[in-house]
Design goal:
268 residues; alpha/beta; TIM Barrel
């Protein structure tokens, strides 16, 4: 729903029965549509008022892609906006192949986030400098900040080899929430194929071949589950209708997951 404004997302989440929504307020790459909440206190207050009226909270803001040239000392306005909007998490991705520099950058960013009571979930993505869960957890440990953890994206988890053994080793407090989507068992053969699948061709939860119940059962109990399933299949539907479909498919997955039976998905 990249064309949706923050207000549209809050409306869609409430319409579908989600507890949270997430908003993109910083562009990971040039050309992505954005709706300004940074540095606009009046617009922030309007959005907060709408969320409170709807009974929807903001889970996270996204997405900070850390590249070699990224100066994270300039991210103060993003962090200020995230804190002002009541979110706790700033989704972060490592795109710097210089591992030591990336660790230093994450440390700087984490210190700035900590000053505002914010937490940085590091998302591993198969076509980035942090391609799998083992590498993400190693980076987090090297950063050495209590407010840095690992974000589990179900599609990326399975595409990176389904490292359940590594997942079992990570302290629960370092996995603040997870993103759920489905896909075919067979991964795309190329980097470009993986990128296209992740951005526009995911399958709705429970309608693919990934073992989502096993993954959800392995996650910490009671963390928010964010439905992260960008797909052309829903592109032409109104935002509220698309959110309702995602909520319904996710609810069916949870019903098949023993440790979460009877719970509801949290984030649209």
């Amino acid at each position: 729903m990249l064309d949706a404004s923050p207000h549209d997302l809050a409306d869609a989440a409430a319409h579908a029965g989600f507890d949270y929504c997430g908003v993109r307020i910083v562009s990971p790459d040039d050309g992505s549509p954005l709706h300004g909440l940074i540095g606009d206190s009046e617009e922030q207050q309007r959005f907060l008022h709408r969320c409170r009226r709807l009974g929807v909270a903001l889970l996270d803001t996204e997405a900070v892609w850390i590249r070699r040239e990224t100066d994270l000392r300039l991210m103060g306005p993003l962090l200020d906006a995230t804190a002002a909007l009541g979110a706790r998490y700033v989704l972060t991705v490592g795109f710097n192949d210089d591992r030591e520099q990336l660790i230093d950058q994450l440390g700087t960013f984490a210190d700035l986030a900590a000053e505002r009571g914010l937490y940085l979930p590091l998302e591993f993505i198969t076509y980035t400098a942090v391609p799998n869960l083992a590498e993400a957890w190693d980076v987090v440990q090297c950063v050495g900040r209590e407010n840095v953890g690992v974000l589990i994206d179900a599609l990326q988890f399975f595409r990176a080899g389904a490292e359940f053994d590594v997942l079992d080793l990570i302290p629960h407090q370092r996995i603040p929430y997870a993103q759920i989507a489905d896909g075919p068992l067979l991964a795309p053969a190329s980097i470009e194929g993986l990128r296209t699948e992740a951005r526009t061709a995911r399958i709705l939860p429970g309608q693919g071949e990934l073992d989502l119940p096993r993954l959800i059962s392995a996650l910490p109990v009671q963390i928010p589950l964010s439905v992260e399933a960008p797909t052309r299949a829903l592109a032409d539907r109104p935002f509220g209708d698309a959110a309702r479909i995602l909520h319904a498919t996710m609810t069916r997955v949870l019903a098949k997951t023993p440790t979460t039976e009877g719970t509801m998905p949290n984030d649209g």
